[in-house]
Every structure is written in structure tokens, then in C-alpha cells.
Design brief:
The complex is a heterodimer of chains A (266) and B (395).
Chain A: H1 6-35, H2 52-59, H3 61-93, H4 100-112, H5 115-128, H6 135-159, H7 164-171, H8 176-204, H9 208-214, H10 221-231, H11 235-265
Helix pairs in contact in A: 1-11, 2-11, 3-6, 3-8, 4-6, 5-9, 6-8, 6-9, 7-8, 8-11
Chain B: E1 4-13, E2 16-26, E3 31-35, H1 42-50, E4 57-62, E5 65-66, E6 77-80, H2 92-102, H3 107-120, H4 136-148, E7 154-158, H5 166-183, E8 186-191, H6 194-200, E9 203-208, E10 211-216, H7 218-223, H8 228-233, E11 238-247, E12 251-257, E13 263-269, E14 279-284, E15 290-292, E16 302-314, E17 318-325, E18 328-335, E19 351-357, E20 362-364, H9 374-380, H10 387-394
Parallel strand pairs in B: 3-8, 3-9, 6-7, 7-8
Antiparallel strand pairs in B: 1-2, 1-4, 4-5, 9-10, 11-12, 11-14, 12-13, 14-20, 15-19, 16-17, 16-19, 17-18
The chains are: A mainly alpha (266), B alpha+beta (395).
Chain lengths: 266, 395
């Protein structure tokens, strides 16, 4: 009788599971990238290499505008929600603040509320208050859902903060403001950067909430992509998506560098 | 140079009194220790001197300057924290330079002073490392350098060696003493480890329940404890209770019940005036008692007791005997010096003689009740109150 080696069995299982996850995650992305260079109007098979769809992207004004809108919304909502996140997390640190639990619950709830519900409710609110939908409403909506994430990420960073470092700095002659900028802020910084990165990516690819709050005439990239696919031309979408993947990877790489530079400059 | 004066310091936390009316003068340049069990208020006292806690009552003075209301960042006092509290995002150099940078010291001067300081603590070759790249002992050195570079008048050390292993602790202790000699400022040291406090300090204050029980040079506290707490907390001791039955100009005699209906007498040299007939406790250090199979030659100033060996614990440098006298148990330390005794080794249940000099029977004056609670006495194994507890703690 052959005995099964348990640890080898797990090893094999782990490897299979890992490979499957990687396949389902990255094969579609790989296909997308490959087909963005395919010289065909529809996905029917390889028809030869071309970069013409990338050139079409640059010439397409609607895409350029959608891109500008997306970046503007993502940039502004990241900035504002990160600042809110820092302030809220610092405020929640004060154990004497009696409303801590309520505020913390209120911050967590948007994480579990379905996007569609949030989108609809925001749309209703804007409709009810007769605010014209457009850039401003999208921005407000994005800030709203990003804040929950930024607060939680920054707060978790602060949770393990060793208060004796503050005392040590005070002991060495640093006043409260100096302590914040020299000790507390640099140690919070990795959390702040992670929070900002998360907010930025959430904002860039949000479709549902943007869909309900943008109204006509203000397209972000996801809205534009959805509209184009609906009309059936997906060729430029492949190249657009490939560029977005590249951009995201670029962001991840530079944030690591930026963090180091920021910390050493403080 | 300036003295540190603590005047009637008290601190309460939510109704709990951490420090209770402490008054003390610490001399300039002294290495002074606060020693006591956890929760005795020693750390709170230190934090008040550092400025992290504001006393509910009392004043703190350095020289003639009242620093009670001065915030920590303006005090000429620096602290070594228990977990070192090095800034993790700065190199060792930047950590040490922190205090100078805050005071906007010119860069060339700052660089020189940091380098000198790193040299003093023997860390000059690792200046560009980060705190998580060095060992506990090295972190300790950096913490010391970071504090001393500010030229404080007082250096506070909060259980600085607690996180280190035994060998390193002994090594750092000597190094701390060397650094103290080199810089010549006042060190205030907080610890619960009596051997640490004894070996390093010029003076020690023994604390319990927020109060100073006894303050003095280490040998003074060890040889002449003023209370049951001091006697029992510092080192090991036998505490025996008896009734004062004779007072002469030179000595005091106690009659001590042995717990089995009979009693024995012990003599002590006279060092305060007890009342005849009063119940009193004496402290008798285990190493002061000699143990022998044969009866010692009678001498006027020697106490002699007959007992039976109940337990023998071989401890390398010495052997600890537990000797039964009636229902009492005596702890006796005997070093292995064969020149004194050519007997064969003592055995379990063997009858022996215990003998010691009168001056080693140390009379303890009655102490206030709140200083040592009954629970602590029984946990500590004081002879007349809880023999079983003592036995458990030994075996």
C-alpha cells in the first residue's frame, strides 16, 4: 500500500491553488494587453500587430476629456478624503472623546453598504436639494465613500503607535508641534500614503456611484468605457485599459520611493 | 552643583494614591535608586521628576529652582525609558542628534558632539543604522547617548536593564557606573531588582505603597533594616518574633515561642530602647548563621540554638539549609569552605547547632501597619505568621 505524504500533499495542493488564482487573475489582463495590439475590430483571433488603436486614443477628444475628469476627481477626492482621514483618526485617538464609538460605527457603515444603494441615495439627495448633477456632485460622492477607507487605514496605523516616543521627544526638548511634525507625522506617513493610494484607485475605477451622480455631460473613464462597449466598439477600450494598468503599476512603484524621500526630508 | 529636593510629593490616580507624601533630598552627582515592588509608586515618582505627571501636592526643586510646573521639554532632566523609545524612523546618529537639533545647534558643533557621545557609549561605528537593526544592549547605549548629549542636570533611568538578559545586565550595570563616573551628573535609577540597586547605588530608597520606607547606603539598608518590609524586601532574612525579657546597657534579650509550647532566648546588641515585655521582631540574615554538627565552644556574645535539618538546597556557591527549631524554620546559608569544617556533609533530619553573633540579631522597631499588609507578610514567609507559605516559597 502506498502511503500519502501529508506535507507533500499540502504542497501540491497549495501549488495548484496558487496557480489557479494566478491564472484567473492575470490571464484575462494578459489577453487584454495582447489584444490591444491586435489589428482587428472585434476579438476574433490574431490578425497582426498594430499600434493604431493607441494613436486613435490620443486623437479621441471624448476620451481625453474623460481622462481629465477622472484625474481631476481622483486627485481632489484623494486629497480631501486623506486630510479628513488624518484629522478624524487623530481625533478618534483621544480616549476622552465620548462619541468615539458612534463615529467609528458611522465610518464603518459605508464600507458594507452596497455601492448601488449609496449611488441611488446620493442621486436622490441631489435631486431633492435641486443640486445640478455634474462634476461637483461626483466629487462629493467620491469624497464620501473614500473617507471611510482613509480613516480606517490611517487609524490602524495609529493603533500601534508607541506613546512613549512622544514622551521621549518631549523629554529631549521638543514642543508639541515639533513632536507632531518630527515624530508622529513621519510614523503615520506610511499609513497616510497607503490611504491616499487606496482612495485614488477607488476613485479612478468607480462606476456605480459615479453613474448615479454624474448626470449627462460629465463622463469619467469608467462611464465612457461602459458607454462605448454598449455601442460595440471595444478596440480603443483595450488600449485604454492597458494604459490604465500601466499607470496603476507606476503609481504603486513610485509611492514606495516617495515614502522614503518624504520621511528622510522630514 | 545642585541638589534635587522632593517636598511632600503626592500623586493620586482616580482615588488610588500612587505616591504618598514623599520628601527627600538627592545630592548632586549621586547615583540614587528607588527600589520597590511593582505598584509601589517608584515610576510615578520618576515621571513626576521628568514632568510627565503633575503632582497633586508638593514641590520639586533642582537647586533653588522650582520645576514643579515647568513642562518636560523645558526641564534640564532627561530620561532613559524602559523600552528605550528610540525613534524608529531615524538613524542612530539622528536619534542622538535629536535634542541638539531641537535647540538649533549649529551643524558642525552638533556633528562633533554626536560623534563624541557615540564614542562614549561605544557605538560610533554604527551611526547610520536604524534602531531595528541593533540589539537590546546597543539600543540601551543609544538611549543613554541621546539623553546625555543634552547635558542634563539629572538623568532618570526607568528600569533600564529590565529588558536585557542576565549577563548583559551585569555588563551594562558596570558600564552605567562608568558613564556615571565620566559625566558626574546625578542619576536617579528606578528598579524592582534589589541586586541591581544594591550594586550600583550610592544610596537607595526602599518604597512601598507610595512611601519611602527607608533611605540610605545599600549596606546600611541591608545590615540595619528599619522595618520588616526593608528586611524582607532586600535580600533574604529570617524574621523571628519574641517578647523583650531583659534589657541591659549592651544587649536586649528576647524570649521567642517556638510554636510548640516551649521557647528559646536570643540576644541582640542594643541599638534602640524597646519596652520590657513588648513583642518585637528581629531580622537575622541567613548567611550570618553558622551551622555545625558539633556543639560550638561557649562564648558570651554568641547565640546558640538546637535544630533539625529539614531541607538542603545545593546552590553552587553556597548551600541553603532549612532548619527546624520547634515549629519555626530557619534559613541558613553556608558557603563551601572546607578549611573551617572537616565534618562529612550534613544530612536530612540531622540534629545541628545554629550559632551567630549577638550583633547580627537585628532588632526591628515597630512599623506602621499600612506599610506592610498582613498578606505581604504571609507571602514573604515571615516566620511567626505563616510557616506553610514560607515552605512553599522555598521548595
Amino acid at each position: 500500500m502506498k502511503r500519502i505524504n501529508i506535507s507533500q500533499f499540502y504542497k501540491g495542493f497549495n501549488l495548484t491553488a496558487f496557480s489557479l488564482v494566478m491564472v484567473f487573475l492575470y490571464i484575462p489582463i494578459l489577453i487584454l494587453i495582447i489584444f490591444s495590439f491586435n489589428d482587428a475590430k472585434i476579438i476574433t483571433g490574431w490578425r497582426g500587430f498594430t499600434t493604431k488603436y493607441y494613436l486613435q486614443l490620443v486623437e479621441n477628444d471624448a476620451i481625453k476629456e474623460a481622462f481629465r475628469n477622472t484625474m481631476l476627481i481622483a486627485g481632489l477626492s484623494t486629497l480631501i478624503s486623506t486630510i479628513f482621514g488624518i484629522l478624524t483618526a487623530l481625533g478618534m485617538e483621544n480616549k476622552r472623546f465620548s462619541g468615539r464609538r458612534i463615529v467609528s460605527a458611522l465610518i464603518y457603515i459605508p464600507l458594507v453598504i452596497p455601492d448601488i444603494l449609496m449611488g441611488v441615495s446620493l442621486a436622490l439627495l441631489f435631486n431633492f436639494t435641486r443640486v445640478n448633477t455634474g462634476m461637483l456632485t461626483v466629487l462629493i460622492a467620491h469624497i464620501t465613500f473614500c473617507i471611510s477607507y482613509t480613516v480606517i487605514v490611517i487609524q490602524s496605523r495609529l493603533e500601534g503607535f508607541d506613546y512613549s516616543l512622544v514622551e521621549a521627544a518631549m523629554d529631549l526638548g521638543a514642543k508639541p508641534a515639533t513632536i507632531f511634525w518630527k515624530i508622529k507625522f513621519p510614523l503615520m506617513l506610511p499609513g497616510i500614503i497607503a490611504a491616499a493610494l487606496l482612495a485614488f484607485t477607488l476613485s479612478i475605477d468607480d462606476f456605480i456611484i459615479t453613474f448615479f451622480t454624474s448626470g449627462r455631460g460629465f463622463d469619467t473613464l469608467p462611464i465612457y468605457v461602459e458607454g462605448t462597449i454598449r455601442r460595440g466598439t471595444i478596440t480603443t477600450i483595450n488600449s485604454l485599459s492597458t494604459l490604465m494598468i500601466g499607470f496603476t503599476l507606476f503609481l504603486v512603484v513610485i509611492t514606495k520611493r516617495v515614502r522614503k524621500v518624504l520621511i528622510s526630508s522630514l | 552643583m545642585e541638589e534635587i529636593k522632593l517636598q511632600n510629593l503626592s500623586k493620586q490616580f482616580d482615588g488610588f494614591t500612587a505616591v504618598d507624601d514623599v520628601s527627600l533630598n538627592i545630592k548632586s552627582g549621586e547615583l540614587f535608586s528607588f527600589l520597590g515592588p511593582s505598584g509601589c509608586g517608584k515610576t510615578t515618582l520618576l515621571r513626576m521628576i521628568a514632568g510627565f505627571e503633575i503632582p497633586n501636592n508638593g514641590r520639586i526643586l533642582i537647586g533653588n529652582t522650582d520645576i514643579t510646573d515647568i513642562p518636560p521639554y523645558k526641564r534640564q532632566v532627561n530620561t532613559i525609558f524602559q523600552n528605550y523609545s528610540l525613534f524608529p524612523h531615524m538613524t542612530l546618529f539622528e536619534n542622538v542628534a535629536f535634542g541638539l537639533k531641537i535647540r538649533k545647534t549649529p551643524k558642525p558643533e552638533m556633528n562633533d558632539r554626536v560623534k563624541d557621545m557615540l564614542k562614549l557609549v561605544k557605538m560610533d561605528d554604527q551611526a547610520n543604522k536604524y534602531p531595528d537593526q541593533i540589539s537590546g544592549g546597543q539600543k540601551q547605549r543609544i538611549a543613554i547617548a541621546r539623553a546625555l548629549i543634552n547635558n542634563p542636570k539629572v538623568l532618570l533611568l526607568d528600569e533600564p536593564l529590565a529588558a536585557l538578559d542576565l549577563k548583559l545586565r551585569q555588563h551594562m550595570l558596570i558600564e552605567l557606573m562608568n558613564i556615571h563616573d565620566a559625566v558626574g551628573i546625578t542619576f536617579i535609577y528606578v528598579t524592582h531588582d534589589q541586586s541591581e540597586a544594591m550594586s550600583i547605588s550610592d544610596r537607595v530608597a526602599v518604597m512601598n505603597h507610595g512611601r519611602i520606607i527607608q533611605a540610605g547606603p545599600p549596606d546600611d539598608i541591608y545590615e540595619r533594616p528599619n522595618s520588616i518590609f526593608s528586611a524582607y524586601f532586600i535580600g533574604e532574612t529570617n524574621l523571628i518574633t519574641g517578647e523583650v525579657c531583659d534589657i541591659e546597657s549592651e544587649y536586649v534579650q528576647l524570649r521567642c515561642p517556638d510554636g510548640q509550647g516551649s521557647s528559646f532566648e536570643i540576644d541582640s546588641t542594643f541599638h534602640f530602647n524597646p519596652t520590657l515585655g513588648k513583642e518585637i521582631t528581629v531580622s537575622l540574615r541567613p548567611e550570618k548563621i553558622a551551622i555545625s554538627r558539633s556543639k560550638p565552644r561557649y562564648q558570651d556574645d554568641i547565640n546558640m540554638l538546637r535544630g533539625v535539618i529539614e531541607d538542603i538546597l545545593y546552590l553552587g556557591s553556597h548551600t541553603q539549609y532549612i532548619v527546624r527549631v520547634g515549629a519555626l524554620k530557619f534559613r541558613v546559608f553556608s558557603q563551601h569552605k572546607r578549611v573551617y569544617f572537616d565534618d562529612k556533609a550534613l544530612d536530612w533530619e540531622e540534629p545541628v547547632w545554629l550559632f551567630w553573633h549577638d550583633t547580627d540579631t537585628w532588632l526591628i522597631d515597630q512599623i506602621p501597619e499600612e506599610v506592610l499588609s498582613a498578606k505581604e507578610i504571609s507571602e514573604g514567609g515571615v516566620n511567626h505568621l505563616s510557616r506553610s507559605a514560607k515552605r512553599q516559597s522555598i521548595t
